[in-house]
Amino acid sequence: MTKKAPIRTCIACGAQGDKRGLIRFVRTPEGDVACDASGKAAGRGAYVCADAACFAQVRKRRMFDARLRVKVSADDYERLQAEFGALCEMREAAQ
Fold first, then answer.
1. Among candidate residues 26, 18, 35, 22, the one with its CA nearest the CA of residue 84
2. Is residue 21 part of a domain?
C-alpha cells in the first residue's frame, strides 16, 4: 500500500499541494521565525508556494504575524526573503 502525500495550503494564494512542493516557515519555541528546509522542525508552521510573488504578498500583508502568532520585524522579513530565495534556487537546481 502506498503512503498518501500530505497536502498543505499556501497562506498567500490558497493553492493546495504536496507538502514537499511548498516551503515551510516555522516559529521556533524561542519565538523566532525561520525558513524550515527540512519541513520537520518543531514549532508552529506556515506554508508558502515556491514563488516570489507569493512571498511578496506574505510580506506586504504581514501574514506571518497572524499565522505564526508572533510579531515579525521588517528586518526579519528581509532575512526570511533571502532564505526563501536561496531555498527556491536550491530546489530549482536539484530538478
1. 35
2. yes
pLDDT of residue 63: 96
27 lies in which domain range? 7-94
pLDDT value of position 3:
82
Task: Find how far residue 62's CA is from the centre of its chain.
Answer: 13
Length, in residues, of the chain: 95
Reduce the DSSP state of residue 67 to 3 states and report it.
helix
| Cα distance from N-terminal residue to C-terminal residue, the chain | 27
Tell me: pLDDT of 86 over 90: yes
For β-strands 22-27 and 33-36, DSSP reports them as: antiparallel
User: Is residue 1 in some structural domain?
Assistant: no
Model pTM greater than 0.70?
Answer: yes
Neighbouring C-beta atoms of residue 30, cutoff 10 Å: 6
Other C-beta atoms lying within 10 Å of the C-beta of residue 93: 7
Inside any domain, residue 2: no
- The per-residue pLDDT for 88 is 92
